Amino acid sequence: MLNINFVPDDYVQNNESRRTNLICLVLLAVVMVALGGSFMTIKIRQRACLAQERLVNTKLTQIQGAIKQFEELQTKRKAMMKTALTTAELLEPVPRSILLASLTNNLPPGVSLLKLSLVQKEPKPSSHIVGSTSKYQSTQAQKTVEQPQGSQEKLLETNMEIEGIAPSDLQVAAYIERLSSTGGLLNNVALVESKEHKVEDTLFRRFKLTAMLKKNIHLTMDDIERISTKAENTKWSF
What we know:
4 strands; 19% strand; rod-shaped; 6 helices; alpha+beta
């Protein structure tokens, strides 16, 4: 039996074309939706990254500000410590009246003081290392030379210049020996010069001494009272 198809071929081709076009449109729509979703996902992630970057930059700026503030505080602290140490060293460990009384107490007979000057300054650090030393000794010496500045501020020296007149160089030598004796306030007492000086047809020796106040010296009230009493007696004995 013959199978006769009464549907025209053009109609069948048109249906197949419409079906193919519909499938293509559906696929295109799926691709566009996928592309749109991918684009939105990328934009969301980009915004999230930008927000995180801004947060990191903000925290970094805050940390930099905190570091700068810390450095400023450290600088102020060092300046305050330096000022405090300098002020503490500038405070007289021995009152000048007591120091003058001690110098007067040790005067030999016939010796008189003419001038006394005091100067406080930092000691000169030794900047060289003696040769022919071991590597360990050189390292230790280098560490000693490279002491922090704070420790040098704490070692201010009080240097003195003493001028006076004496009948002879024997009294000058006796005065130097008394000032250098154990229990005194001074060390490094040295004679700078001693020359003839005429006062009313009488020849004297005008001398000049240098000395340094002992470091870390602290006088008690008993010491001050003893020096003051002895100075008062010495004054009346002239």
